[in-house]
Structures are given as structure tokens and as C-alpha cells.
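Here is a complete protein record:
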Amino acid sequence: MESFCDLNISFPKSEKQDAVVYLCGKLGYRTIAFNHVIDVSKAFTKNQLKFEIPELKISENLTNVRVLRRVTLICSDSNHLRALNSPLLRKFDIVAVCPKTEDMLNQFVA
């Protein structure tokens, strides 16, 4: 049997999470990741990353689909690199970074 993954589904509201997981299972997905996007320039104050982590509420009977948590950090300033050490990020299974400037891109690939 074929199986698929989608690792970039926008984090739905709590009451819609079961429906999204159920639909993904029906479409053949076995792994999905709910993605939460953070603009670090708005969430990074006093050298700390602060944001509300969305709640993950999945019914126990939807076990055929593995649900991961993903966060995408939008970075536009080299000072934002310190945000990558935030303990908040340990609550996510996948951490992605979206550099907004060429300088930031060079910071990440160097």
C-alpha cells in the first residue's frame, strides 16, 4: 500500500484538527505536520522568543495518521539567530527557517 506525507499543513483550530487528520488518512497520508509560522521580528523581544504554541488535540481513534508539530521561523535580521536556541522550539518535531534577506540566507548556508 502506498503512503504519503505532507509536512506543511497550516495549524488548524482545535475543533477542526480531527477532520483534517481524518481527511488526510482517507487520502492515503500516513504522516502529516501541522505548521505554525512565526515572524521572528515580531516575536523576538529582549533576546527571547515569545509566542503562543497552538494546542494539538487529536482523538485517540485517529491512530492511522502520525501527526507532527512543525514551526517555520521567518528571519530577517542576524540578531534573530539567537531565537534558534529558544526552549520553545523543543516542543516542535520540525523546525524550519525562512530567511528573508540574502544576508540571512548566507548566515544559514555558511
